[in-house]
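User: Round two. Same drill as before: sequence, then structure, for each protein.

Assistant: Same drill it is. First protein:
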Amino acid sequence: MFDNHKIAVILPAYNAAKTLKRTVEEIPFDIVDEVILVDDCSFDNTIEIAKQLGIKHIIKHDKNKGYGANQKTCYDTALKLNCDIVVMLHPDYQYSPKLIKALVAMITSGHYDVVLASRILGKGALKGGMPLYKYIFNRILTYLQNAIMKQKFSEYHTGYRAFKSDVLRKVNYKANSDDFVFDNQMIAQICYHNFRVAEISCPTRYFKEASSINFKRSIKYGLGVILTSLQYRLQKWKIKKFKIFEANVDR
């Protein structure tokens, strides 16, 4: 518990055997109540290592469903466990688990509903090994999204975030893509429903075992990001409605 809030950390995993132990060892278990790992049909021994580490909630997809589908299972499970705050942490050790307390504290302060850990605030992205083309791609997409959606985020593409459970109950994440653009759709939904969002600076680590999408999939993701932004603007202007921006009423 942290300030009387039940805290869950979700780990959307795919072939994370080489990095899972390092990630879990840095989770602050003095405040974290539940750790949920969803394995998207890995072909390594991610599940076995998760069991050795004592992770209580382990779910394995019977086939590879995609990064977004993995998160859907993660959030569904966290809500079933009645967690108050849910932190998404990639198990590839690219983001620092030591910042979980900071993310959670910003929400329990009562000022924010969502906190994003930004690799772009400060100068940590390139120093941490982010490929130059990814950095440029990140900056261009963020500029375009801020212009279209009229926001002021330093980046939309971090995989390290914390949410109040009320956010997850309202946004229609089940309608989102099962692919990587899921993350971006979540931010658009959060903005559409006027949740309060903060950012903190986060160091990042790029190394051989850390997960990363290739150039071809980056292009696909970028096109999905632009489409999401345009859908957001069209719905804000009441020109057209999209299912992803419907408020969820079932959870």
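Second protein:
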Amino acid sequence: MASESTEGRTPNPKDGRVSGNQDAPRKRSPGQGPRGAARFSSSSDRTSADIVYEKLHGAIASMELLPGTPVSELTLTREFGVSRTPVRAALQRLAKEKLVEIVPKSGTFVGRIPVSGLIEAIVARRALEVMIVRNTVDRATPDDMTYLRDQLARQRMLADRGELAPFHAADEAFHAALATMAGYPGIWDIIRTLKIQVDRYRQLTLPQEGRLEMVIREHTAVVDAIEAGDADTAARAMEEHLDKLQLDIEVFGQDHPEYFIHDRAVDDQV
């Protein structure tokens, strides 16, 4: 009896074999690109340099480590139980992000906040979030509105308790939720990356008397406009909310001049 040919048979996508010949796996050509699910790195792929970087990044962003604080390679090697190679790699990465300053023959220090970078980040964030909130108006569901109202209630509770760090986290969750509701969660990832200097600066503004209440009022104005289906008012409310960050830079720059690199006039609009 003649052997059965597989010519003209349809590939079975479930097991990668040719129908009619279950013992012949489908071959891939050398250099053929990936298919199916994404194959990017995951948190399990972190190196020692990544771990040092993430720890320092978090401490700098939260202002646990203040601008100008010396950073010792030797201390970090002992703290993390690693050699100097991953520590130096982490510090070089932070230096590229302007989070540490490496001064020849002097040492490494937590970076000061460049006013120029701060203003540019606020302008970029404002443009992206105004677009986000306009799209949220078109896409928000009743469940989304319930979630946003719950977030406002949580912010109120944390403000009443004076819990600044959890309030900042709730603020982040609020803005991230808007991006997800608008269908642009990836844009929030971009915003998070570009606003690192803004996050540091905000740690100075949150303890300001009346600041938390002002943030809640501004968030409420955004939510009210979204619920009313008014994209123009929602966009304007978001713009005014984010503009407040720029208005106070000069004040905090004068109160803490050692925390900033004064490389641009605050009123020099971009």
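The chain has two domains: 47-111, 115-261.

User: Perfect.
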